[in-house]
UniProtKB/TrEMBL annotation:
<dbReference type="GO" id="GO:0005737">
    <property type="term" value="C:cytoplasm"/>
</dbReference>
<dbReference type="InterPro" id="IPR040637">
    <property type="entry name" value="Ribosomal_uL10-like_insert"/>
</dbReference>
<dbReference type="InterPro" id="IPR001790">
    <property type="entry name" value="Ribosomal_uL10"/>
</dbReference>
<comment type="function">
    <text>Ribosomal protein P0 is the functional equivalent of E.coli protein L10.</text>
</comment>
<dbReference type="GO" id="GO:0005730">
    <property type="term" value="C:nucleolus"/>
</dbReference>
<keyword id="KW-0963">Cytoplasm</keyword>
<dbReference type="GO" id="GO:0000956">
    <property type="term" value="P:nuclear-transcribed mRNA catabolic process"/>
</dbReference>
<dbReference type="GO" id="GO:0000027">
    <property type="term" value="P:ribosomal large subunit assembly"/>
</dbReference>
<dbReference type="GO" id="GO:0030687">
    <property type="term" value="C:preribosome, large subunit precursor"/>
</dbReference>
<keyword id="KW-0539">Nucleus</keyword>
<dbReference type="InterPro" id="IPR051742">
    <property type="entry name" value="Ribosome_Assembly_uL10"/>
</dbReference>
<comment type="function">
    <text>Component of the ribosome assembly machinery. Nuclear paralog of the ribosomal protein P0, it binds pre-60S subunits at an early stage of assembly in the nucleolus, and is replaced by P0 in cytoplasmic pre-60S subunits and mature 80S ribosomes.</text>
</comment>
<dbReference type="InterPro" id="IPR043141">
    <property type="entry name" value="Ribosomal_uL10-like_sf"/>
</dbReference>
<feature type="domain" description="Large ribosomal subunit protein uL10-like insertion">
    <location>
        <begin position="126"/>
        <end position="195"/>
    </location>
</feature>
<dbReference type="InterPro" id="IPR043164">
    <property type="entry name" value="Ribosomal_uL10-like_insert_sf"/>
</dbReference>
<protein>
    <recommendedName>
        <fullName>Ribosome assembly factor mrt4</fullName>
    </recommendedName>
</protein>
<comment type="subunit">
    <text>Associates with the pre-60S ribosomal particle.</text>
</comment>
């Protein structure tokens, strides 16, 4: 009698082990970096663009090491309190790892790090759900920036268009997006076609740690206890 498929044993141990090993590896790498580099920064980010961040990271790879991922894993590595921190004062860094944040370990002078972060700014097309930075409205009439082949696609995006002697024409005024409101999938596609970039990828320094100093750059309502502890 053939074996029943219902009795087939499925093990998840390999997947679980791999995930645990990866977390342990990150913890060890963070601890090693904390011993190797002279200062530590926490930074926050807006509108992350992976390729642009990779280019920025590669620019500093000879002097620095970035960690971007699970905040909880990095907190474990640095220590949650003065009792389990790996170096004096690093638990203050750990407390700031929440939301869209990362860590920079570096041997660069403070002034150089501040300059690099202050100058870093990349503009890109906004994605679905992003916030419109301005109102965009197209007026009734010909849309000569679009070829006639694009008319069906524009219609699918909700635009009231038609072909008039081979020219794409808007039959009535059309609001693509409103300032301060989330972008729909259709709006983000239209803005890309219009060449309008509304997303700014920025990195903001939150704090700096060195063996002799701890400094907050951005202090929120919940961070006063970090600076004073």
């Amino acid at each position: 009698m053939p074996k029943s498929k219902r009795n087939k044993t499925v093990t998840l141990s390999k997947t679980q082990k791999k995930g645990r090993e990866r977390k342990e590896a990150i913890v060890n790498e963070v601890k090693e970096a904390a011993e190797k580099y002279s200062s530590v920064y926490v930074f926050s980010f807006e509108n992350m663009r992976n390729q642009k961040f990779k280019e920025f990271r590669d620019q500093l790879k000879s002097t620095s090491r970035f960690f971007l991922g699970s905040n909880k894993v990095m907190q474990v590595a640095l220590g949650h309190s003065a009792a389990d921190e790996i170096r004096p004062g690093l638990y203050k860094v750990s407390k700031l790892l929440r939301g869209n944040t990362g860590i920079l370990f570096t041997n660069l002078p403070k002034e150089e790090v501040e300059r690099l972060f202050n100058e870093f700014e990349e503009y890109d097309f906004a994605r679905t759900g992003g916030t419109a930075t301005e109102k965009v409205e197209l007026k009734e009439g010909p849309l000569e920036q679009f070829t006639h082949e694009m008319e069906p696609f524009l219609r699918k995006q909700g635009m009231p268009v038609r072909l008039n002697k081979g020219v794409v024409e808007l039959v009535s005024d059309f609001v693509v997006c409103e300032e301060g409101k989330p972008l729909s999938p259709e709006a983000s596609r239209i803005l890309r076609l219009l060449g309008m970039k509304m997303a700014t990828f920025q990195l903001h320094l939150m704090c700096r740690w060195s063996p002799d100093d701890f400094e907050l750059y951005i202090q929120g309502p919940d961070d006063s206890d970090v600076e004073n502890s």
